[in-house]
Amino acid sequence: MTNQIATTAVQTSIVVDTPVERAFTVFTDDIGSWWTPEHHLLQGELAKMVFEPRVGGHIYDVGTDGSESRWARVLAYEPPTRIVFSWDISLQWQIETDPARTSEVEVRFVADGPNRTRVELEHRHLERHGEGWEAMRDAVASPDGWTVGLHRFADRVAS
Amino acid sequence: MSALGDGTRRAIFELLADGPQPVGAIADHLPVSRPAVSQHLKVLKEAGLVIDRKRGTRRLYEVDPEGVAALRAYFEQFWNRNLSAFKRAVEQTPEEDP
């Protein structure tokens, strides 16, 4: 239902000047080279990010102390055009162990000429996260909502 | 006890994510009586997950749009920021032939 997509999903896209194969490889294999480094749930410092290139694999963060945080399950892996992974992070910034309460992210890589790729991303089923909206609403409604959100993330990481 | 810890309430909540519904329609979709649905809706309302609105003679229940809007705004910013970083990284080094 289009209504559902409009209300509980987020869609965005970006065009990058690189062939589709390379866009796919950097997005997956080199995820640690671009992912906003503050966004991890480890207690300590982030050493690397790993994207396991198969359905049933995980995306996980590894800390400098060797700890791991498996925050996504790879649900589709179709190089070089499509991936789907779960978002196993609750709105309280903790690993969500109940798959019924996780949202999912689909990324499509569409070739737009030999050296250009359109990356289309949809993060859907946000309603599955359920509770926690109030805190999220307050954070986003503040004058600098994004920064507050980041600080909350940082606090979680530091605690 | 969380409002969505109950399977029936979770089913009702996900049904409402598809669009606003009156109590009767929700009861038709699930193996639960109308009074039971009303009771579950009350819990969902108290948890701030669902709101109700009177439309004509009907009362419609829907997922709290303010809550979803905040979630969407948050993730929209999150992904735009992350994809911009991805673009910088992927365009930084020129393609190398192995």
Question: What does the model show?
Answer:
The complex is a heterodimer of chains A (159) and B (98). The model of chain A is unreliable at 1-6 and 143-159 (pLDDT under 50). Chain A is globular, with a radius of gyration of 16 Å. Chain A has 4 helices and 7 strands. With 159 residues, chain A is of the alpha+beta class. Chain A has a single domain, classed as Alpha-D-Glucose-1,6-Bisphosphate, Chain A, domain 4 (2-Layer Sandwich), CATH 3.30.530. Chain B has a domain at 7-64: Arc Repressor Mutant, subunit A (Orthogonal Bundle), CATH 1.10.10. Chain B is built from 4 helices and 3 strands. In chain B, a hairpin with a 2-residue loop joins strand 2 (50-55) and strand 3 (58-63). The longest helix of chain B is centred in the C-terminal third of the chain and has 28 residues, at 65-92. Chain B starts with 6 loop residues before the first helix and ends in a 6-residue tail after the last helix. The chains are: A alpha+beta (159), B alpha+beta (98). The interface between A and B is large, with 47 and 42 residues.
Number of separate strands of chain A:
7
Biggest interface and which pair forms it? A-B, 47 and 42 residues
CATH topology of chain A: Alpha-D-Glucose-1,6-Bisphosphate, Chain A, domain 4
CATH C-level class of chain A is Alpha Beta
Fraction of residues in β-strands of chain B: 5-15%
**CATH class term of the domain at 7-64 in chain B:** Mainly Alpha
Find the structural class of chain A using helix and strand composition. Answer: alpha+beta
Secondary structure: helix percent of chain B: 55-70%
Largest sheet of chain A: 7 strands, antiparallel
The total number of structural domains of chain A is 1
Radius of gyration of chain A over all CA atoms, rounded? 16 Å
Which outline of chain A best applies?
A: globular
Tell me the β content of chain A: 25-35%
Q: At CATH's second level, what is the architecture of chain A?
A: 2-Layer Sandwich
Taking Cα atoms only, what radius of gyration of chain B do you get, to the nearest Å? 21 Å
CATH superfamily grouping of the domain at 7-64 in chain B: Winged helix-like DNA-binding domain superfamily/Winged helix DNA-binding domain
Largest sheet of chain B: 3 strands, antiparallel
- Note the gap between the termini of chain A: 41 Å
